[in-house]
Every structure is written in structure tokens, then in C-alpha cells.
Specification:
The complex is a heterodimer of chains A (318) and B (76). With 318 residues, chain A is mainly alpha-helical. In chain A, 47% of the residues lie in helices and 3% in strands. Chain B has helices spanning 2-12, 14-22, 24-53, 59-73. Chain B is elongated. Classes of the chains: A mainly alpha (318), B mainly alpha (76).
Chain lengths: 318, 76
């Protein structure tokens, strides 16, 4: 259409003629007579295209590129990807590992890190029996409701209580750790880029001494996986720091793996049920989809296989 | 879904279709009983498959180890 209106001037008569003559082959009729165009048109179009492409490229060069504000050291080393079994779509947590991981948390992490969003009751039927958890909860003291005199007394913990934090508040935690706040671990796997891989690498990635040229501030430790590489937490997992009740050798990587799986459970306690429900619903929906395909074919079969025939009336005119 | 009732009539058994669809009470009861039976069998079957995929990983698999120790301390 555009070509036809551009070239209307000299060829108008021919166009009219050809339009009038051959209406059916209109796409093929625009052959030799429209092919030639003046040089100045080609030049203008080329220049306009070059100008548009050039300005777009210049704009992208100026504003479109990603800005990297941080150096690689400040980004932190990318964590190694590990084939976590519990991250597969059809696998639950390894509950024996959860139990070991909770032991690592209690004996190592809990001295600084809180786990405030997890109540004692949530361990029952997941990694401990109810009696074990009751005993564990009773080892801690909690405030009672005010009594008749308005006094708040202390009582042993119940299953419905939440795990107490090691420090009274964040300021106390900072003061005890050289100004650095140990983060709450309840949702740490969800809350850190890289998830399980990051936390595992962080726990096992402390070098014996910082590499040459790395600057480590006073009271800090070097960990390449921590953004900024300077971390207030020192290496805490050493071989044999925990003695597992099921006889698993407590190597550094074994403890890190167990505690990472445990922290993933505390961040996603619903994961086992969620995955099971997902597998069931996918199976059901697959069956329903197959039925709906069959119904569609059943309904459409007569429509698709019919033949519409026009039999002209036999009239006197023919 | 008239199509399915036709299919039952033509390809499964005319006798079944007539008993199933003649009385609404029978039809409804069959639907409810069928839903109940399907739910039961589907859940049982899929739970079995799930447990076989996760053998040794779940709490019920490791629970006996810790129940024995608890019973020795106090009979509760």
C-alpha cells in the first residue's frame, strides 16, 4: 500500500489499468513496473535507518547498561551448588538429619543466634517425641501472667512456648558481639540469597588464614562467601565439636549439612506436606486434563467428520 | 455430561446405565459413593508411593529408635 501511494505520480495510469484488468492476481501484478525507485529515496531511507539505530545504540550505551556498584569482594563469592536431596520435588526432609541439625543448633549456634519463631511443640512428631520436647521445654524459664499482687513470676516452659533467645534484646546481642547482631535463624535460609548453598558455604568456607592482600578489620574474620568478606562470626564448626547420639561422625561438613537442613526446616516447616500435596494435585489434574481432552474429542467428533454438501436445485433456467 | 452416560450405555453395559441413571437417588448415591471410594483409594495409593520414595527419611521411619529410650525412663 505504501509503495503504491509513493509511486503514484508517473505510474498512475498503468496502476489503474493493471488494477482494472487483473483483480485476482494483485499480489503478483506488482512486478517490474514498481521495482525501480529514485536514488534519493533509497539514500534518505538508509540515512534515517542509520540515524535511528545509531541513536538507540548511543542511548543504550549511556543509560541501558547494568551498573555494578560493588566490587566482587563486596558481592561475596558465589556459593557452590550442592545436590541437596531435600530440595528435590518428591523428597521430604531427612528427619534424622533434622534431629542432628537441631542438636548442632542447640550446642553451637544457640549461644548467639535466636530461633524465636519456632515453638517447642513444632518439634514433636518431626524430630523428637513429645516427652523429649516437654523435658527440653521445662529446662527453660518463662514469665508467668501477673498474679493477684501484679507480680510476674517464673515458670518452667511448656510445649506452646517459643524457643528463648540467648540475649534479652538486640542491643544486648550487639554489645556482647562487638557491635555485630547475630541474625535470628528462624527464616535465614529463605532470607539469604543462595539459601542452603550459601549458609553451608559460609559455615565451611573459613580459610585457615586470610589470603595475602586481604584486609581484615580488627575483631573480624575472613570469609570469602560473606558479602564484604569481613564477618564478625568466627569459624564455629570443627570436627567433633558435637557428639551425635546416632553415631554419625561429626565432621565439619556433616554438621554444616545437618544444621543447614534443620534451618531449612525451621524456615519451611510445611515443606513435606506441601510437596506431597503438590504431587497429588499434579497427578489428579493430569487425569482431569486427560478426561477433558477425551470429552472435547467426543463432542467434536461429529462436527469434524461431517461433510457439508451443496446440491443446487434443479431449476428450469439451466 | 450426557456424553459419558451414552458411552456407559453403549460401551460398558446397557443394564448398568439403566439402573444407574433411571432413578435420581441411585445416580446421586453412586456419585457420592464413587467420590468417597476414589478419594480413599487415591489417598492410600499416593501415600504409599510417597512413602516408598521417602523410605527412611520421615519421622515415622526413625521414631521407633527414640520411643524405646523414652519408655525405659518412665512408663507413660
Amino acid at each position: 500500500m505504501l509503495a503504491r501511494s509513493l509511486l503514484r505520480g508517473p505510474n498512475r495510469a498503468i496502476a489503474r489499468q493493471s488494477l482494472g484488468k487483473s483483480t485476482r492476481a494483485s499480489s503478483t501484478a506488482a512486478g517490474a513496473e514498481f521495482a525501480s525507485s529514485p536514488f534519493y529515496l533509497t539514500l534518505t531511507a538508509s540515512l534515517a535507518t542509520a540515524a535511528a539505530a545509531g541513536s538507540a545504540a548511543w542511548y543504550y550505551h549511556l543509560y541501558g547498561q547494568e551498573a555494578f556498584a560493588m566490587t566482587p569482594a563486596e558481592e561475596g563469592l558465589h556459593p557452590t551448588q550442592y545436590p541437596w536431596v531435600h530440595e528435590r520435588f518428591n523428597k521430604t526432609f531427612d528427619h534424622a538429619a533434622l534431629r542432628r541439625g537441631f542438636q548442632v543448633y542447640r550446642e553451637v549456634c544457640a549461644s548467639c543466634h535466636s530461633l524465636t519463631r519456632v515453638p517447642w511443640r513444632s518439634f514433636v512428631g518431626v524430630m523428637h517425641t513429645v516427652d523429649e520436647m516437654k523435658a527440653m521445654a521445662e529446662e527453660n524459664e518463662y514469665d508467668t501472667e501477673p498474679n493477684d499482687q501484679g507480680e510476674i513470676e517464673k515458670r518452667p516452659g511448656k510445649l506452646s512456648d517459643y524457643i528463648p533467645a540467648p540475649y534479652k534484646n538486640d542491643e544486648a546481642a550487639r554489645a556482647a558481639n562487638g557491635g555485630a547482631l547475630p541474625p535470628d535463624l528462624s527464616l535465614i535460609i529463605k532470607g539469604r540469597h543462595g539459601g542452603c548453598n550459601y549458609v553451608f558455604n559460609l559455615l565451611t568456607g573459613y580459610p585457615d588464614e586470610p589470603p595475602a592482600g586481604a584486609s581484615v578489620a580488627e575483631g573480624m574474620n575472613f570469609n570469602p562467601y560473606f558479602p564484604g568478606t569481613g564477618i564478625a562470626m568466627g569459624r564455629v564448626l570443627f570436627d567433633g565439636v558435637v557428639e551425635y547420639e546416632d553415631g554419625t561422625p561429626a565432621t565439619t561438613s556433616q554438621m554444616a549439612k545437618d544444621v543447614v537442613e534443620f534451618l531449612n526446616w525451621s524456615a519451611e516447616p510445611e515443606m513435606d506436606d506441601r510437596k506431597k500435596m503438590g504431587v497429588k494435585s499434579i497427578a489428579l489434574l493430569t487425569g482431569l486434563f486427560a478426561i477433558s481432552v477425551w470429552v472435547k474429542r467426543y463432542k467434536w467428533a461429529p462436527i469434524k467428520s461431517r461433510k457439508v454438501v451443496y446440491s443446487p436445485p434443479i431449476g428450469p433456467r439451466r | 455430561m450426557a456424553g459419558i452416560s451414552n458411552v456407559i450405555y453403549q460401551h460398558v453395559s446397557p443394564a448398568l446405565a439403566t439402573t444407574l441413571f433411571r432413578r435420581n437417588a441411585v445416580y446421586l448415591t453412586a456419585i457420592f459413593a464413587g467420590a468417597f471410594a476414589f478419594e480413599l483409594s487415591f489417598d492410600t495409593g499416593s501415600n504409599k508411593i510417597w512413602d516408598s520414595w521417602n523410605a527412611g527419611r520421615q519421622w515415622k521411619d526413625i521414631k521407633p529408635r527414640y520411643l524405646v529410650a523414652a519408655e525405659e525412663e518412665d512408663d507413660d
